[in-house]
Amino acid sequence: MKVVAILPPSEQVQAQIGMVRALFQGHTVELATNAAELEPHLSDAEVLISTAFTPLTREMLQRAPRLRFIQVAGVGTDHVDIEAARELGITVAAVTGANTVSVAEHVVMVALALLRGLIPAHNQMARGEWSLPYWIAHARDLQGKTVGIVGMGRIGREVAARLLPFGVTTFYYDANPLTSEQENTLGVTFLELDPLLGECDLVTLHLPLTTDTRGILNRERLFRMKRGAFLINTARAELVDEAALVEALQTHLGGAAIDVFSPEPPPPDHPLLKLPNVVLTPHGAGVTQEAQGRIAQGVIQNVLRFLEGRPLADVAVQGNR
Ligand code: NAD
Question: Which domains, and CATH codes, for the chain?
Answer without folding.
Answer: 2-98+288-317 (3.40.50.720), 100-280 (3.40.50.720)
